[in-house]
Each structure stands twice: as C-alpha cells, then as structure tokens.
Amino acid sequence: MRKYLIIISICFFGFGQEVYSQSLQGKINQATGGSSSKGRAQSISEMRKNRKKIPRDWKPSMLKLNYDMVPAFSTLVGTERTGQGFQASIDFDQFFFTAEYGQESTRRGELFDYQNDGSYFSFGPEVNFMRKNTDGHGIVFGLRYAHSNFSDQLTFTRSGDYFGDEDAQTQVAVSNPDLKANWMEMTLGLTANVWKDMYMGYTVRYKILRQVKQIDGMAPYDVAGFGLYEDNTAVRFNFYMGWAIRWREKFPEPVLPK
Q1: Within this chain, do residues 90 and 201 fall inside the same structural domain, yes or no?
Q2: 50 and 146 co-located in one domain
Q3: Average pLDDT, the chain
Q4: Does the structure show a pLDDT above 60 at 6?
Q5: Residues 130 and 14 occupy one common structural domain
Q6: Whole-angstrom distance, CA of residue 122 vs CA of residue 130
Q7: Last residue of some domain: 12, 35, 55?
Q8: What does the alpha-carbon distance between residue 129 and residue 17 come to, in Å, rounded to a whole number?
C-alpha cells in the first residue's frame, strides 16, 4: 500500500508540473520573443531548459484560516454526530503546508448507549496544479499524517443474574479511557476566492493505514476523525469557508534576462 501511495503521489506531482509548464508557455515566448527558437513558439522541452530563468516565489504571501461547515451542519441538525473542524494553510510558491484540528463526539444506540469523544489533528504538504495564480484559487493534491486521541464507553442492561433470576437486571459499562489512533490521508480539493479575501472550497480525503492503540475493554466502534473502526480505509468530504490574511503580492512579475 505504501508503494502505491508513493507512485500516486509522484504521478500527481508530475501532472502538476506539466500543467504549470503549459500555462506559462505563452508568457515566456512573449517575454523572450522566441529568440532561442528562431521566432517560432517554444516547445515544452525547450521551455523546461529555460525554467531556471523563471524565478520561483518561495516566500509565504498569505495564511488561510478555514472553518469546516460539514461537522457544523451535522451539529445543528443531527443527533448522532457532533463536532467542529479548523484548517490553516500557508503558501510556498505553488505548494502549501496545511494543518487541521477538530473535535468529534458520537452517540449511538437504542437498546444500548454508546458514546465516543475525542480530538484529532493532521498536517502535511499540498501542491497546487494552478501554478501561477495571484488570487489564491487552487486545485490541490496533498498527503497528510493524522492522529487522534479519544475515549469511548458502552453501557447496556443485562437481564438475569448468576443465580438464575430472570427478572434481575444489571447495568454493564465497558470503556476505553485513553485510545490513540493514527493514519495517512490523500487529499484532493478545490478552493476559490469568492469575495475580497474570503475563500470557499471542498476537500475529498481518502484515509488509509489506520492503527489504533491502547484498546482495553472492547474494540471501539468509531475512531474520532477517521470513521468506523471496522474499516481499514475511509473517505470523507469537507466543505470549508475561510479568510486569507495577506501581507504581500504573490508571484510578482518575473524579470527575464534579455
């Protein structure tokens, strides 16, 4: 599985670089006059040779702060799952470093009562396929490491006792007070600048390599931030709204050598 993850990551990264190369081809030809190609349009291979002439913009230009609307909506209208999620990302050229934090609580059962409460965080790099974009729009692919701390408890009523009394009822409680989980995520998302420095976007994440530690009395039903314990993989959709704090212009016009 890890081998496949690395292969997929390399493919997406290469695709992003190819999109970047094609989008800037016209600007380079205009700036250079096509002199290196005797007046004709430059090919992709020729443009790659001239890539060093185009300065990268590695200095951060903004910090995006986002709020996840999916758990917020679930908290308002649902009864089974509540929570909230936050996201922050900072840009480096066409890349982002993104971190997330959230809290999640789950209540299940009719003839029993199952409670699961915890918090989770994740962080990792992202690449924006829209390489030169001063407005902050993006089609991004990322890799994340995620971790959660949570606890759960199952309470139910058992009929009968050890002496054969069928009318006797005993309340039984089983719990895991200090569970820890970690997993990896592959993310694909779209973000757009909708008004001034306000952004909206979504992320679809595929979660793999889940591990849960410190299981005590029973196997948990839910894993905070991940999904069902019985599933080794999970898919989750997030919809974000947020604001960007800018302190300089991103991707200033490069000065190409004559």
Answers
A1: yes
A2: no
A3: 82
A4: no
A5: no
A6: 24
A7: 55
A8: 7
